[in-house]
Amino acid sequence: xxxxxxxxxxxxxxxxxxxxxxxxxxxxxxxxxxxxxxxxxxxxxxxxxxxxxxxxxxxxxxxxxxxxxxxxxxxxxxxxxxxxxxxxxxxxxxxxxxxxxxxxxxxxxxxxxxxxxxxxxxxxxxxxxxxxxxxxxxxxxxxxxxxxxxxxxxxxxxxxxxxxxxxxxxxxxxxxxxxxxxxxxxxxxxxxxxxxxxxxxxxxxxxxxxxxxxxxxxxxxxxxxxxxxxxxxxxxxxxxxxxxxxxxxx
Length: 250
Known about the structure:
Shape: globular
Number of helices: 8
Distance between the termini: 44 Å
Radius of gyration: 18 Å
Structural class: alpha/beta
Order of helices and strands: HHHEHEHEEHEHEEEEHEE
């Protein structure tokens, strides 16, 4: 029996339990404000949050008056997003799909892909297919904002192990390995709760260089307009994250 891909198995309740404590509402609010400042879109513009997860960015974007769609593969995260949007009284079009299949054409003024949601697939051709789908879904002159890890920072800050203790007694151990031939960051995650129950997940991501991403984006018709070290438009450094803004050309 073929193993389920890690990105189908990981993004659910355990994912939220691990990361939610590090994503308070005030952080999300700052990120949304920064995204809107970078994109500078007219009110009412159409935005697709690609790999929207539980709607952390899609919902506040809709609250700002934008026409928002959210696409994700995780059913548990989308269920949480739908419930939260209903509670907040905002209308968002939610779609469950693989990011290699974005079922729109010339639909969006902007597409965002944030919080390290690119590079998941087994080879570069599949990642390139994602960008081709982004191009197809954007309107002419539409913008694509990609926010992810920056390869030099990953390399410079690399440690083979990490241990995090949570207030509820959860312990999360990360065992990390970077394959220098394939430029993949491989992580095995072990969760041990206060009752001693143990669960394991894996995470595998291709960490692209800025040069590689610029080439990939240009090859599908979305030349890069700007790049930064964060959503706050700070300068790119060896120790920053990476934000790229590209634009669809015909």
